[in-house]
Each structure stands twice: as structure tokens, then as C-alpha cells.
Design a protein that fits this description.
about 230 residues, alpha/beta, Rossmann fold, Arc Repressor Mutant, subunit A, five-stranded parallel beta sheet, 11 helices, about 60% helix, elongated, sequence-specific DNA binding, Sig_transdc_resp-reg_receiver, CheY-like_superfamily, Response regulator
Length: about 230
């Protein structure tokens, strides 16, 4: 289920907004954070599909929270909550790529319109996102025989490494490491079946520097050694 993160230090406003959101868009799970610090902690664990945050909060204020989010991802939509007296402050936040801002007290209709517009735009952009991820998968396929890290991929597609890692979870429901291991083993199986390469050569072409490590991983994941796999395939 898609998640919306609400960051607001005033409990009454935060809980009221949660109820309002659930009434307006019931198919999304609303997660509460009572401070910027708590919101950032949640964000690092699971990237939400939308963040709604107050500007003025005790401890880490809204601008600091937003700037730290943007260090990881420029793609997560952010709506800011602002009082009339905070308008200039809210406008300053727009430089961080804020999607929209809502004035307090929150109007049910305005909230519904803002979120509907936002999610409609996201759906229209989802194909482009998909192409970007395909670019990542092609990079991995082209470099499978070499060392591949999240940093390498991030530099190739101009994204934050942590965000690239989260893309694997959202797109494939796998970690980056799980995907790499799966693809290396697929290549190894194909080479074992279709060629007469020695095991250490298969290991090297599949991205394993150590034949011993390759054989350990292969047996653990496949249930037999590379030699046995070749024999019975």
C-alpha cells in the first residue's frame, strides 16, 4: 500500500490531518511523525509516496527536514503546511522543489484537489520513471562481469545511491544485492550449460573475483555445485 508521511509537531493538527487524509484518499496509508527528526528517520527506512510537512516545528524545522530529504531524493513530492504569517517563509521553501503548499486551517476541498492533481501527474510520469530504471538494469547487464556498486550506478544515472537502492525495492521488491546475486547466477548457469568454460572462467565472467566464493554462493543458492549443475543440466 502507498504511504503518505505527515510531519507535524502539534498532535491535534497532525491527528486531524491524518483523519482528513483517510477520508479524502482512503486507499493510502497515512504515517505520522511528530518531529522533523522522526520524519527523517522514517524516510530513511521507507521512502513514502508523498510527504506533508509543517514549516515551523520545534527541533528540526520544516526547511531543514526538507533539505535533508532532498539530499536523498528530488523525486518525492512534498506539500508544506503554512500559516498566513509564514507565507514568505513558505515561498522560500519552494527552492527545494516543493510540489505545493497549503494554508492552515486545512481546507478539505483544497487538500483533495492538491493530492488528486499530484497523484495524476505522478501516474503520467510513471512511464518515464520506468525508462530510468530500465537504464539502470541495462547498465547492470552490460557490466555484470565487473564490480558493480550502488555508487557506480548512481553516478551513471545522476541519482543518490540510497535512492537507487530504494528503487530496487519499489520496482522489483528486491534489494540491490539480491538482484545482483540473481543476475550473476543466471549468467553463470547459462555459461555452464552452453559453454565448456572452466568453472573459474565462468566465475570471472559472472562477476566473481574469487572462484571459491562463487562456488560457495552457487551451492548455497542452487543446491548443487557448478560442476554438478553442468553434469545434470
Amino acid at each position: 500500500m502507498k504511504e503518505i508521511l505527515v510531519v507535524e509537531d502539534e498532535a491535534i493538527i497532525r491527528q486531524g490531518l491524518k483523519v482528513l487524509l483517510e477520508q479524502v484518499i482512503g486507499r493510502y496509508q497515512v504515517v505520522e511523525a511528530k518531529s522533523g527528526e522522526e520524519g527523517l528517520s522514517f524516510f530513511h527506512q521507507r521512502m513514502p509516496h508523498l510527504i506533508i510537512t509543517d514549516i515551523r516545528m520545534g527541533g528540526m524545522d520544516g526547511l531543514t527536514f526538507i533539505s535533508k530529504v532532498r539530499q536523498v531524493s528530488n523525486d518525492v513530492p512534498i506539500l508544506i503546511l503554512s500559516g498566513h504569517s509564514d507565507f514568505e517563509y513558505a515561498r522560500t521553501a519552494m527552492r527545494y522543489g516543493i510540489t505545493d503548499y497549503l494554508l492552515k486551517p486545512i481546507n478539505r476541498v483544497e487538500l483533495s484537489e492538491a493530492i488528486s492533481k499530484l497523484f495524476k501527474e505522478n501516474e503520467e510520469e510513471s512511464i518515464e520513471t520506468s525508462k530510468q530504471f530500465q537504464k539502470i538494469l541495462h547498465y547492470i547487464d552490460d557490466h555484470l562481469g565487473q564490480e558493480i556498486t550502488l555508487k557506480h550506478i548512481a553516478e551513471y544515472v545522476y541519482l543518490n545511491p540510497q535512492y537507487v537502492g530504494q528503487l530496487f525495492k519499489s520496482e522489483l521488491d528486491q534489494t540491490f544485492t539480491e538482484y545482483i546475486t540473481e543476475e550473476r547466477l543466471k549468467r553463470a548457469k547459462k555459461l555452464l550449460k552452453d559453454t565448456r568454460l572452466k568453472v573459474y572462467e565462468v566465475a570471472q565472467l559472472s562477476g566473481y573475483k574469487s572462484p571459491k566464493h562463487f562456488m560457495t554462493v552457487f551451492k548455497q543458492e542452487v543446491g548443487m555445485t557448478p560442476v554438478q549443475f553442468r553434469k545434470f543440466s
